[in-house]
Hints:
Helix content: 25-40%
Order of helices and strands: EEEHEEHEHHHHEHEHEEH
Distance between the termini: 13 Å
Number of strands: 10
CATH superfamily: P-loop containing nucleotide triphosphate hydrolases
CATH class: Alpha Beta
Amino acid sequence: MSTDGTGSGEPILQATGLVKTYGRVVGLDGVDLELYPGEVLAVIGDNGAGKSTLIKCLTGAEIPDEGTIRLEGRQVHFKRPQDARAHGIETVYQTLAVSPALDVAANLFLGRELRKPGPLGTVLRVIDRKRMRQRAEEELAEMGITTLQDVTVPVENLSGGQRQAVAVARAAAFGSKVVVLDEPTAALGVRESQQVLEMIASLRDRGVPVILISHDMPQVFEVADRIHVQRLGKRAATITPRTHSMTDAVAIMTGAMREDVR
């Protein structure tokens, strides 16, 4: 059975021949990946398959030993996560990087605070909280996030799903080219997980391509356009929910089924 589901057009993000080793341990063994505009690409695989290492290399948290990464056709070299963010790649990790004591608006603009106009902002560096809260409300409304009515509420008072919404909204606000979500529903209930999936669909509707790392197969098959399967540090296949079943995906992950990788 051959693999179907290659995206159309030119990839917005493309990795070719990525290799990453840790001493004698091989994290990535010549991995290729393509992310196309306006799609959700899921990355699945067993523990130790190289999912996390692949994502870290794509987002600047790790530097690959070999291989190339291209963004919009141009080769890029990320030495730290800030480099990837500067190129429009935002990542929401499983351990949410939110500040519990700050409110929703402050978390959305964490590290990118808006300053008051004129000397107050340029010289005294006074934060424009009113404009940040207004922008935060606009961004949440555009994302269709209705569970966060008050952007002045401290994040520590929010539920797990609401905190995830803040992190995803921040990524969407500043991830102008790519948003990467690492196990975004791992610690959430059914209702909150569904809200996150709706946010992912909203990102796609806005034309923002998403890389989704997840172990939840039903969620992957619900929201993904294509599925990149990692196995033993390599890409085992790229499949789609239209051409393959969840059973097929698990079989490829475990090596029970082999695919033509392309």
